[in-house]
UniProtKB/TrEMBL annotation:
Documented EC number(s): 4.2.1.113
Record's keyword annotation contains Lyase: yes
Protein name per its UniProtKB record: O-succinylbenzoate synthase
Membrane-crossing segments per the record: none
GO terms for MF: O-succinylbenzoate synthase activity
Record's keyword annotation contains Translocase: no
Keyword terms of this UniProt record: Lyase
Amino acid sequence: MRTLIDFDSAPVFAVPTRHGVREGVLLDGPQGWGEFSPPADADDALAARWLTAAMEPSTVGWPDAVRGRVAVADPAARAVVSVVDVDAAVTRIDGLGTAVDLVELVCADAGDVAAVRRRVDVPVGVDVELLESDPHCADVAVLRCGALGGVRRALRRFERLGMPAVVHFTGTTSIGLAADVALAAALPDLPFACGPAPEWLPEGDVVSAARTLVPAQGYLPAAPMPAAPDPVKLAQFAVSDPQAVARWRAWLHRAAALL
């Protein structure tokens, strides 16, 4: 698939958010566009999975959706709790209040997750990677499209687990977010709302305002492919610094070499 995409002309973008600037690359393939935006601390192996996810909509496309829209979580209804100490994590969760309907635990030890789960009343989710060691330590599998290598690969991981899942949105632009929504729309069951949606998109997106994915009445529409970037918006957020562009180009090629 990588031979169908010109990495050396792919536009690099930078979008300001309240958490800092988020960067990435847009890939133009024969079927459309994709977004490559792994976290800055990702190694090349993880970046390769993000690249597979970015190339999926622009080459082979996404699998068919089973729902036309996806419920988006209210940020107030979700919490992410790092588990360094089980007692401290339980205390924090107990203090969140009744508005929270799902807590994602960030933890490297499935045993600690299970210990927290036994002591709280709210459902707990963990990243799907941790469930490989103990699929019964949590109530919900948290899926991330980019880190799992795209919609198809994420669905295969979900099918092996046989437990409820929720999609954590990781896209930076509406092009990347469309992949997150496509994954959620393809899951056979979706007992929880997904997200939350990026709050910066209304002002910081590379597609036209009419195509920006902003929740309406608590939902985002599922689409068979992402919107194409708008030339004016893309120019607004394009990275022109030669060193930054070269860094992203080099990362793309290193990731592609691992595919």
